[in-house]
Amino acid sequence: MKQKKQKISEKTLNKAEIKSEEVSKVEDMEKTSAKKAQPKELTKEQKIYMYLRMTFRAVSPLLLYALIPSLCLTIGYVVGYEEKMTMEEFFSYGANFYSALGIFLVLVIFSRRAKKRGSTLSKEATLFFKEMKPLKAIGFFVFGYASATAVSALLTLLPRFFLTENYTGATKSMYLGRDFIFTSVTLLITAPIAEEIIFRGYMLNTFLEKLEEKKAIIITSIIFALMHGNFVWILYSFFLGYILAKTSMKEDNIAYGVMLHIGFNLTSIVNLLITENKAAAASIFGSKWLILLYGLTGTAVSILLARLYTGKIKFNTEKIA
Fold first, then answer.
1. Cβ atoms within 10 Å, residue 271
2. What is the DSSP annotation of 5-43?
3. Which of 46, 127, 190, 220 could cross-link 103 (Cys pair, CB 3.0–4.6 Å)?
4. What is the pTM of this model?
5. pLDDT digit of tens for each residue in the chain (321 aa)?
């Protein structure tokens, strides 16, 4: 009996040893495969190349956006040139038309390129108008208009110096065109949609492939701001771009950013309509106290909507969310 027990125990030990050896072999194989699966650390040159390639991919839609409208404007000037018409007169009559046409062509190019890749412009840029919730969309639109009113009032009330003078001159140059319809189309339709697709769609999404969210948002906002040229525009465009980027990240839909952008640009059209009528301009913008009131109202509405959106104020959250 004792011999049988010893034999059984020896067999059990042998089996246990075999199993432990098999387990250790499996563990060694797993460790080896894990080591192979780990990506090799990139060299400095490879990292530089990777970031340069990513940057080019991110800004290439912007280069197209800058090139096509300028090309349309040049062709329009060459084809429609008249000896009696100066360059300034041509810009006054046709600049906004060719700008709107150029931006429309850029959107067509984006759409065709997406289709060739077996996708759609909406998917690639995360632009989904149908998925917007009406109350939230209106909220973003009103926030854009209110914040632009606050900024405009502040810049109007600031003492005149070279930066604000340059801003005033640049703003007036936007209204040189006599084609009011195309000015409105550019500011309220083509430009907001195209810029959101380019900056918060393609550019931000490309940077997010390799960068942290905060870095991607800041870089995109800086490029968006620099595109506006004038120093004062650059300053507030950075904050606007930052808000638009944060919104697109939170909603995973740049359509809300488009609504905010349209609301922000609408103040320019309203100001243009008012200033065209001297009597209306005198009664609406004639007093600094009135301008201050507009600015304070815009600021208050912006803060209220921002607090509602971030949940700091609870009010009909089921409808707004």
1. 19
2. HHHHHHHHHHHHHHHHHHHHHHHHHHHHHHHHHSPPPPP
3. 190
4. 0.79
5. 544 445 445 555 455 555 555 556 555 565 555 444 455 677 878 878 888 889 898 999 999 998 998 888 888 777 765 556 666 666 666 677 888 888 899 999 999 999 999 999 999 999 999 999 999 999 999 999 999 999 988 888 877 655 545 444 445 555 545 567 888 888 899 999 999 999 999 999 999 988 999 999 999 999 999 988 778 788 889 999 999 999 999 999 999 999 999 999 999 888 888 887 888 888 888 888 999 999 999 999 999 999 999 886 665 544 544
